[in-house]
Amino acid sequence: MSDDAAAAGEAASDAPTNDGQQFDRLPETPADREVQGRASRAEVLDWWAERFGIGEGVFEEYGFWEKGAGKIWVFNGEATDPSEVEAVGMTFLRTRQEHWKPTGRAVSRFGAHATKNVIELDPEQASRFAAGDDQDIPEWDGDWGYLIATHEVAGESVPIGVGLYLYDELRSVVPKGSRADLPVVE
């Protein structure tokens, strides 16, 4: 092995890596990235703006952290040394996969700010969605992929979860522990 090759191998092994057992703050920009594959704050904000029309001002007071491979957490506050804690804030987004996926908790908290890729469900559809049922909705003419499912409650559109829309079907990705049998109220 040449000295150059040995030096390159040594430098690569010295590069920071993702430690799945601790929280690490996301870098501000891709140029600030030290851990390969880690999303940056700018990329996360761009994704929410592009996918759902939620402006970065909504997240101004929040910090973003990664624990595990691509599990992004959002936290409103300052953590002095989060590396020793089990949880900071709430899970927010799954990255490090082909299609990023928002969590149901993030959609519940921030989805009311969305202006794009929001599918309004009627009472029957909302009840089925909350129960975890997939359903045919060929009338949707928006983007495919992850959508924010909403339902009108007391005159306001309220986020009820994340759905995956493919081939005229809305797939409920509401976690089993969060599913509910809701009465249908017209």
From TrEMBL:
Protein name: DUF7122 domain-containing protein
Organism whose genome encodes this protein: Halorubrum xinjiangense
Residue ranges annotated for the DUF7122 domain, each copy included: 13-89
Signal sequence extent: none
Listed Pfam families: DUF7122
Ranges for region Disordered: 1-39
Organism phylogeny: Archaea, Methanobacteriati, Methanobacteriota, Stenosarchaea group, Halobacteria
Composition bias, Low complexity: 1-15
Bias type Basic and acidic residues, positions: 25-39
Domain of life: Archaea
